[in-house]
Design goal:
203 residues; mainly beta; Jelly Rolls; 5-stranded antiparallel beta sheet; elongated
Length: 203
């Protein structure tokens, strides 16, 4: 019979702690699935499509998520649906990460957040459309989408962020679509994990 072994790792305070498995003995290595099993996953999408931009975004977002909680929002995906397509059009998602202490959005246009674990819908965070924001630096994310002939509706744009953007308390994230024409319209969405400070902090 083998000797029991205890695995240890360092926590956020740099202290050694024992690693724990589930009741069935599973040790999670995919943090997204773990966060989902804990009920931390949320997603939203705007219901009104807006025209894409034909220049780099600046001070207006199509969709903004503001963190009004004490948790950290770990961004899993950012996406947009091309509701009205345009021929000979190339589109790409742009994302702006707003720092701690950003000005909170003036509205909260989308009040329902769908839980990815089947729990009741939540209202945490502020999600606003057509919001005026500070230009803290916009960057393209994900693959572009190309349309040659018109098909309505069109496809989707998706940036698989997978935790490489984190929105701490009082910070935010904004989304826009930039295209080669202005006749295409998009709805915009976000998928994130709302993680308690006891499990994740941003230093």
């Amino acid at each position: 019979m083998g000797m029991p072994v205890t695995l240890q790792g360092k926590n956020n305070a740099d202290a050694l702690v024992d690693l724990k498995a589930t009741e069935g003995g599973v040790l999670w290595t995919d943090v997204a699935r773990y966060y989902t099993s804990r009920g931390y996953g949320w997603q939203v999408i705007s219901t009104s499509a807006v025209a894409s931009l034909v220049l780099r975004p600046s001070s207006t977002s199509a969709l903004t998520l503001y963190n009004n909680s004490a948790k950290s929002y770990v961004i899993e995906r950012v996406f947009a649906h091309n509701l009205v397509a345009a021929s000979n059009c190339v589109s790409v998602l742009w994302i702006c990460s707003h720092p701690i202490g950003m000005t909170a959005p003036t509205g909260n246009d989308i009040t329902i957040r769908n839980n990815t674990s089947g729990l009741s819908a939540g209202t945490e965070g502020v999600v606003d459309t057509a919001e005026g924001v500070a230009d803290n630096g916009w960057f393209p994310w994900g693959q572009d989408s190309s349309v040659v002939t018109v098909t309505t509706p069109g496809g989707i744009l998706e940036a698989r962020v997978y935790g490489r953007i984190i929105v701490p308390p009082t910070a935010g994230i904004s989304v826009q679509v930039v295209s080669s024409v202005t006749t295409g319209t998009f709805t915009h969405g976000l998928h994130w994990f709302s993680v308690p400070a006891s499990e994740l902090t941003v230093n």
